[in-house]
Amino acid sequence: MNVGILMITHGNVGAVLLQAATHVLGVCPLTTQTLSAPPDCDPDQIYLEALTITQKLDHGDGVLVLTDLYGSTPCNIACRLHEQHAVSVVAGLNLPMLVRLLNYPDLPLGELTEKAVSGGRDGVQLCLSQESTRHAK
C-alpha cells in the first residue's frame, strides 16, 4: 500500500501541477486527487468533499494533503481534516515539491511529508544570468 495524495487548491492549480508533474515523470506513482476551492465556494461543502476523498484515498498508509497557500480557504479546509482523519498537511504546493514526493512512492507518510517540504523549499532557487554572475565576483 501507499500514501494517498490530495491537493486542495485555488481554482485548478492542483490539477495543472499534477498534469505537469506527471508529464515530467512520465507517470503518477501515487494515488492522487485534486479538489478545487473556487473563490465563491462554501468551505463547509468543500470540507465534506475533502473528507470523502480522504477516506477513499487512505488504504491504510495515510493521506498527504497539499495546499497552495498557508492561511487560505483551501489550507483551512485541509487543516480541518485533522479533526476526522489522520492526515499530514503541507502548504506552499509547488511543482518541485510535487515532483520530489512522487519520486518516493514507497515512503511512509511522515517521511513523504518531509520530502514534500524539502522539495518545495529546495526547489526555490535564485537563477542568475551569466552577466550577473560576472559582476558578483
Describe this structure in words.
- The structure is a single chain.
- The protein has a single domain, classed as Rossmann fold.
- The chain has helices spanning 13-25, 43-57, 73-80, 95-102, 109-122, 130-136, and strands spanning 4-9, 32-36, 63-67, 87-91.
- It is globular and about 55 Å long.
- With 137 residues, the chain is an alpha/beta fold.
SSE order: EHEHEHEHHH
The coarse overall form would be: globular
Sketch the major β-sheet.
Answer: 4 strands, parallel
CATH names the topology as Rossmann fold
Structural class: alpha/beta
Low-confidence runs of at least 5 consecutive residues: none
First-to-last CA distance: 51 Å
Roughly what fraction of the amino acids lie in strands? Answer: 15-25%
CATH architecture grouping: 3-Layer(aba) Sandwich
**Oligomeric grouping of the chains:** single chain
Q: Average the pLDDT over all residues and give the rounded result.
A: 93
Helix content: 40-55%
Quick one: how many beta strands? 4
The CATH class: Alpha Beta
Q: What's the number of helices? A: 6
Q: Rg to the nearest angstrom?
A: 16 Å
**Strand order in the sheet with the most strands:** 2-1-3-4
Number of domains: 1
